[in-house]
Write a structure and sequence with these properties.
164 residues, 2 strands, mainly alpha, two-stranded antiparallel sheet, 79% helix
Length: 164
């Protein structure tokens, strides 16, 4: 099934999710680096701005994701998609709370704990997204049998040429 939210057969959702995923994980990395520094205000600031960028990016990526979700026909795949969406919304809400606490100046371990939980949930959601794409072929442009055979033939030929 191809994605209805695509440009020239390239689905937008997987392109856009790379930014918020990277930024949200990087915000946690900054927090962890900041723990090892006596004056961690710079790392905390970088973590906060990375987090805000990740939240904004996630909301932008959610638009084509929702369009793709609404186009799903298979009930089993749609169920996975809804779980993926709900977990992502929880992740965005957690990081929004985390950012709000940081803007208020909260320095307890709560923001770090929220970041850790958010990244763990992000990994679970990514697994579900991968299951939809790699197991169920969501947003994958179907190939003809001839194209698949030609691709396989090229790969086999390239593999044997590289061994000589």
């Amino acid at each position: 099934m191809s994605s209805p939210a695509s440009v020239k057969n390239h689905p937008l959702h997987p392109v856009l999710v790379a930014f918020p995923i990277g930024l949200l994980i990087f915000s946690l990395v900054c927090d962890l680096i900041g723990l090892s520094k006596p004056d961690n205000t710079a790392w905390g600031t970088v973590a906060l701005y990375s987090m805000v960028g990740g939240i904004i990016g996630a909301l932008v990526a959610a638009i084509p994701g929702l369009i793709d979700l609404l186009a799903l026909k298979d009930p089993a795949v749609k169920k996975i998609g809804v779980r993926h969406m709900v977990i992502n919304l929880i992740v965005v809400a957690l990081f929004a709370i985390d950012a709000w606490l940081r803007f208020r100046g909260t320095t307890s371990g709560l923001p770090l704990t929220i970041s850790i939980v958010g990244v763990i949930l992000l990994l679970v959601s990514g697994w579900l997204g991968g299951e939809m794409v790699y197991v169920h072929g969501v947003a994958v442009e179907p190939q003809s049998d001839d194209a698949a055979r030609a691709y396989a033939k090229d790969r086999i030929g390239a593999g044997s040429a590289s061994r000589t």
